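Quick start: what a row looks like.
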Amino acid sequence: MKKLLTMLAFGGTMMLLPACNTVDGAVEDVESVGDCVDGVEGNC
């Protein structure tokens, strides 16, 4: 039973790690859109 719980915890952790990169990428996309909207020349 302990081995099963360890494997499930490890698997769950491995599935969450790529999500961090996805959230970082989404934040960068939103920031780049904000830079384009502000109207300053050369931000897009």
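That is the whole record. DSSP finds one helix and no strands in the chain. The mean pLDDT is 77.
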